[in-house]
Amino acid sequence: MRGFAEDLLVKDMSGARPMMDKLESEGWRRGRTLFVVDAETGGSAEGVLRECGYVEAGTIPDYGTSPSGRKMGGIFFYKELRAPEVSGLAMDMNMTADEVRPWEL
Prior knowledge:
The protein has helices at 16-29, 44-51; strands at residues 2-4, 34-40, 55-65, 71-80. It is α+β, with helices and mostly antiparallel strands. The protein has a four-stranded mixed β-sheet with strand order 1-2-4-3, covered by helices on one side. The chain is globular, with a radius of gyration of 14 Å. The chain starts with a strand and ends in a 25-residue tail after the last strand.
C-alpha cells in the first residue's frame, strides 16, 4: 500500500532526516509499504531524499510554480518501507502523522 507526503517545508535541513524518519515510521505503522515524495528539481530536498535512501523515479518539467510565479521542475522519489530499526535516533512510535510538525524538528 502506498503512502505519500505533500507540501512539506523545512527551514533547517538538519530537521529533514528526523522528520522523514518519523513519517516513514508512521507510514509503516499504518500498513504502508511504499512511500512516494516529490521535490523541486535541483533543490536542497533532492539531496536529503537521496541521503535518506529514496530512489529517483523521474522528473517533470514545469511541474510547480515558485512563490514568485516562476515555473519549476519536479523530481519524484520512492522508498520501500521496512519495519523501523532501533538506532541512535529515539523514535516516538506513538506519534501520528497529524502530530509531526517539521518546523519543530
